[in-house]
Amino acid sequence: MKITNVEVLVLKSPGLYNNPEGSEEPLGPTYMGIVRVSTDAGITGYSDMETAASVAKAAVEAPRWSEGGVEAFDGLASLIVGENPLEVERLWYKMYRGSIYYGRRGAAIQAISAIDIALWDIMGKFYQQPIHILLGGKWRDKVRAYASTLFRSTPDAIREATKKYLDQGFTAIKFGWGVFGKDPNMDVRLVEAARHQMGSQNDLLVDTGWFIERTPKQAIQVVRSIEPFRPFFVEEILHPEDYDGYRHVAENVETLIACGEQEATEWGFRQLIEQGKVDILQPDLTRCGGFTIARKIVHMAELANVLVIPHSWSSDLLTAASLHLNAFQRRAVFVEFNTSQGPLSRAMVKTPLQMTDGYVPVPTGPGLGVGVNEETLEKYRIA
User: What helix, strand, coil percent values describe the chain, rounded to 5?
Assistant: First the structure.
């Protein structure tokens, strides 16, 4: 079996990403990239990609730089077309090395990540096994989900939104970004409103948003101000690369500190573990390097005795991938479930993933185990 084509489809939703004023649901992503890898065996692999899709498309479609064996400026597709898609480890490193002068982070590693996921999807379909079996084992049939949504602007709106998610069956809710960070007193009131509405038996998670510039001491003050309301974790309290700052915060608060959705490669996560000392790693499969790297992250986390809760906000394609990673972990906690109602979130697969009694079943079909909705791809494709 050989790879015959690697494509990046750029999709655009009719609605713009928004921060709701009331309790209504956010629309979700405006743009999304979809990687489609084809083979001469008729097997096709897919992945979504939450990045600047047009930039990633250029990285994939760029030509070979040299015929003399120097692989440092090459387009990603040119490096793997004609190769055996089952050789995921070798192909990952070939793409990483081949993009090293323009990549290593950002859109290049995100494109590599999506291609890697698509290759694992192909491998699962070839062997007629779900990805978690190929990763090494299945520890669970379902994963507890947390509703992932934005902070609303008032305590009343937070209470209304919280009630809605509880009525849907969620037992954990994460509020993030939105208005949080603009007014410290309002921040506390919003978290307090969520906790009081959900009671003591459900879990509250808080994403403070790294886009708010904070010193480590300011971050500690923020965490301590909301600790009376018992957040399960506080996420992205500092800039993603402030490793020393994260260590200072994690060592001085009781609440678990989470980080890693912007991090990439095994080297980056080793630094986050050893220097950042965070309690929870949040690799996004479409940013960290795909399954090939995520498997290594899980093993590193087990050795360091820290938790892994994958970031998976974009579409059901990524949620399905994250369910496979959770199934593979000996100690899984949550799967992030994007509650946005936009078509790029909800209509990417033929049968959208469903949550029942607070849990989402791990897909059991071959590969990712979800069928891509080609009609959605064609309807919203702009490039």
Answer: 40, 20, 40
One-letter-per-residue 3-state SS of 205-252: EEECCCCCCCCHHHHHHHHHHHHHHCEEEEECCCCCCCHHHHHHHHCC
DSSP designation for 356? B
Rounded to whole angstroms, the Cα distance separating 136 from 164 reads: 37
Q: Are residues 324 and 252 in the same domain?
A: yes
- Domain boundary, last residue among 98, 128, 158: 128
Is 39 found in the same domain as 99? yes
- What is the domain-level CATH number for residue 204? 3.20.20.120
Residue-wise burial string across 116-148, b where 16 or more C-beta atoms lie within 10 A, e elsewhere: bbbbbbbbbbbeebbbbbbbeeeebebbbbbbb
Place of tokens 């479409």: 286
Distance CA(152)–CA(75), nearest Å, equals 42
The answer to whether 289 touches 116, Cβ cutoff 8 Å, is yes
The whole-angstrom separation of Cα 296 and Cα 269 is 10
How do residues 203-262 score in pLDDT, each as one tens digit?
999 999 988 999 999 999 999 999 999 999 999 999 999 999 999 999 999 999 999 999
Q: Which residue has the tokens 């996420």?
A: 235
Q: How crowded is residue 275: how many other Cβ atoms within 10 Å of its Cβ?
A: 12
Please tell me the distance from the alpha carbon of residue 1 to that of residue 80, in angstroms, as a whole number. Answer: 12
**283: containing domain:** 134-373
CA pair distance 120, 130, nearest whole angstrom: 9
Structure tokens at 3: 């790879």
Predicted TM-score (pTM) of this structure? 0.96
Within 8 A by CB and 6+ apart from 105, the residues are 264, 268
pLDDT 10s digits, 87-130: 999 999 999 999 999 998 899 999 999 999 999 999 999 999 99
- Contacts with 51 (C-beta within 8 Å, 6 or more apart), sequence order: 33, 106, 107, 110, 111, 286, 287
Q: Which residue has the tokens 């630094």?
A: 271
Residue 379, in any domain of the structure:
no
Q: Determine contact, residues 355/337, Cβ cutoff 8 Å.
A: yes
The rounded distance, in Å, linking the Cα atoms of 263 and 113 is 12
In which band, very low, low, confident or very high, does the pLDDT at 67 lie, cut at 50, 70 and 90? low
Whether 382 is covered by a domain: the verdict is: no
